[in-house]
Amino acid sequence: MKIVDVCAFYSPQGGGVRTYIEQKLRIGPQLGHEIVVIVPGERHEVIERGPGARIVSLPSPRFPLDRKYGYFADEGVLHAALDAEKPDVVEVSSPWRSPSMVARWQGSARRSLVMHADPLSAYAYRWFEPVLSRSHIDRGFELYWEHLRHLGQAFDMTVCANHDLAGRLRDGGVAGVCVHPLGVETGVFTPEQRDPELRARLLELCGLDQNARLLVAAGRLAPEKRWPMVVDAVAAASQQTPVGLVLFGEGREKRAIRSAIGGNPHVRLFEPERDRTAFAAILASADAVVHGCEAETFCMVGAEARASGTPVIVPDCGGAADHARNAGSLTYKAGNRFSLTNAIVKFCEQRQGARSASWVVSNVQHFEGLFADYGHIVRRSKAA
User: Fold this and answer.
1) CATH, domain range 2-183+362-383
2) Which residues of 278-294 are buried (b: 16+ CB within 10 A; e: fewer)?
3) What class, spelled out in words, does domain 191-349 have in CATH?
4) What is the pTM of this model?
5) What is the mean pLDDT of each run of 10 residues along the chain (384 residues)?
């Protein structure tokens, strides 16, 4: 098959979507498929990534709130690019404007909407849920739900990476919803990466000895990640039990997070660890990975922790909740600092058992399953 991904979230500067795209460009041709990714760029450009894999950038404006990203503004140019490619399947990885543009394209390709974002959880629920129920919030955002239902009718399938989002979309009347968890570098993230000396060094950086518990967190420093809440919860828990937190990340909320840390010696903030093997050792050496965001569409660090045999302490909804399957893992009420504090204390006080990896989908298995579904819809279309 020839699969074209219309990817509005792609940025050459990095991010989770870029990592996913790089995997697709590498693995897709290995599975016998041609992969083309159309992205918003500064100019028209074709970047070859080897046999059967390339990126096509279309001249596009920069997104005003984050100029690392662009957005598709010219529907005719996008349609012309799709006409030129003649794909079997068009995949769109944004719930905003670009899927509507692809829905209006007159080509015969099958279409897949991949939910790499959950705007209601990231914004509406986070802003309003303290005072309103989700049902009230959903009614206030009925236009967005109508938009999603329209896309569900226009696309052959709506792909989610977690069961919570998939359930909410089905309950909201969106058609064709299916779940395909993202893949993990299972050869990199393993319990064998555990390093007691590394654990001791990280605890020492937190002013603690080896008898304390080490929590690790990683992700963008953005409001929806709720890192100040995580910092406050660890600080509160440390009044009852010895526990330290090392947080790896970068982003616009760094100042707010540093303010939340204050002079707390048991919480440290570091730049992201970009060496995947070194980061795998950090995750495997942690006593637990803690996460604050209930708006994750998958929560890659949670999956990598599972592959590393490391328990997680995560919100009870969103993509992170799917990873609370390792022995010793805990969930807490999303957005609730007191519930998170109690979960951290409970984790620190429970006896640690043997560490083993929980089953996760590998990168190759993810694309094998997703592309098999694409093959089914293409064959059904040809038979019809």
Assistant:
1) 3.40.50.2000
2) ebbbbbbbbbbbbbbbb
3) alpha beta
4) 0.89
5) 92 74 95 96 91 94 72 93 97 90 95 92 90 91 95 96 95 96 93 96 97 96 95 97 96 93 95 95 97 94 94 95 88 96 95 73 95 95 78
